[in-house]
Design goal:
Length: 345
């Protein structure tokens, strides 16, 4: 063994370059394995003259350490390379990462349920503008000029309400029935979901924004009995097959006669609980036979045609369905509330 031999070997170790883990292993065996070049030098070292032992011992140890360090370094580089290569490669057989699913808003869930039931009954779906004019929201619906809904404290006006046919935010979706009567071919069978606005102070039981679904059915010989049957069938689809309805006389400018409809409380089944306030009944919608004045205002011959209309509040029905106590929950986008509806997608 000579100093030159050792130096040459050291230079070779330092210049070592490997591309794969296999090449690294081969290099390790070549230098440090049982029959490796460095191991062999250590065997030769036994025969080195005593006075040279110290000198050779030192350089040999340095060589061995340098080789071991080089091998470790090469391994580390190869591992990081392998990790980044596999991260960027496409493995099309790998199952996809799952994304956290959002949940549908309770108002959307109930609106779709209501609309879906009427679709099944053969109703079309129509929508109208949220920014409407006085004609569609009030005038054509037979509201007298002095009706309180036409006051600033009940309706959000966009233009001055002294002018003729002012622009306003619709206060109910009944205006969409006017648009349907003006534009659709008879007979008309339609539901109109949408957002409405009222100038109300926000509280647990009232809000300035909410949603309604309006329904309209116009044909020859449509009767109050047809309306009753349509609403009963709807109530049983929505609240369960045991549901009963009752009608109480009411007043709306656009229907005559008018009624308010209650469904039997599906929580206590008529026994009385705090949801139905002990009555066994829950109010869900307003309805009536379309007033002939309303038909005529939209150009429909009230001698030939008759019809019924109904309107219901989506938040109210959602409140009954899930016993939501505070209307403000629907509009605050608090994830703790919204996440409760994840299973209803
Ligand atoms: N528009 C009424 C409201 O906002 C609801 C309503 C009642 C609609 C009776 C109708 C109806 O079509 O016939 O309170």
């Amino acid at each position: 063994m000579t100093r030159e031999q050792i130096e040459a070997l050291k230079a070779e170790v330092e210049a070592l370059q490997c591309k794969t883990e296999q090449e690294i292993e081969e290099a390790r065996v070549r230098f440090l394995g049982k029959k490796g070049e460095i191991t062999r030098l250590f065997e030769e070292f036994r025969t080195v003259d005593k006075d040279q032992k110290k000198e050779f011992g030192q350089v040999l140890n340095q060589l061995k350490n340098a080789a071991a360090a080089k091998i470790e370094e090469l391994k580390a580089v190869a591992q990081t390379f392998a990790a980044s290569a596999s991260a960027s490669a496409y493995d099309l057989t790998k199952p996809g990462d799952s994304y956290p699913l959002g949940s549908r808003h309770p108002v959307s869930i109930v609106r779709e349920e209501i609309v879906g039931i009427f679709r099944k009954f053969g109703y079309d779906v129509a929508e109208g503008p949220e920014v409407e004019d006085d004609w569609h929201v009030f005038e054509a619906l037979n509201f007298p000029p002095e009706h309180p809904a036409r006051e600033m404290q009940d309706t959000f006006f966009v233009t001055d309400n002294d002018q003729k046919n002012p622009i306003l935010l619709r206060t109910h979706t009944s205006c969409v029935q006017v648009r349907c009567m003006e534009t659709m071919k008879l007979p008309i069978r339609v539901v109109c979901p949408g957002r409405v606005f009222r100038n109300e102070a926000i509280s647990a039981r009232a809000h300035c924004i909410f949603h309604q679904v309006e329904g309209l059915y116009i044909d020859e010989n449509v009767t109050f009995a047809d309306m009753k049957q349509a609403i009963l069938l709807f109530a049983r689809e929505m609240f369960g097959p045991e549901t009963e309805i009752r009608m109480r006389p009411s007043y709306f400018p656009f229907t005559e006669p008018s009624a308010e409809v209650d469904v039997s409380c599906n929580i206590c089944h008529g026994k009385g609980c705090n949801i139905c306030k002990g009555t066994g009944w829950l109010e869900i919608l307003g309805c009536g036979m379309v007033d002939p004045n309303v038909l005529e205002a939209s150009g429909i011959d009230s001698k030939k045609y008759s019809g019924f209309a109904f309107g219901m509040g989506v938040e109210r029905i959602a409140m009954l369905k899930w016993q939501v106590k505070d209307l403000r929950n629907y509009f605050e986008n608090d994830l703790r509330f919204l996440k409760e509806f994840e299973t209803n997608i």
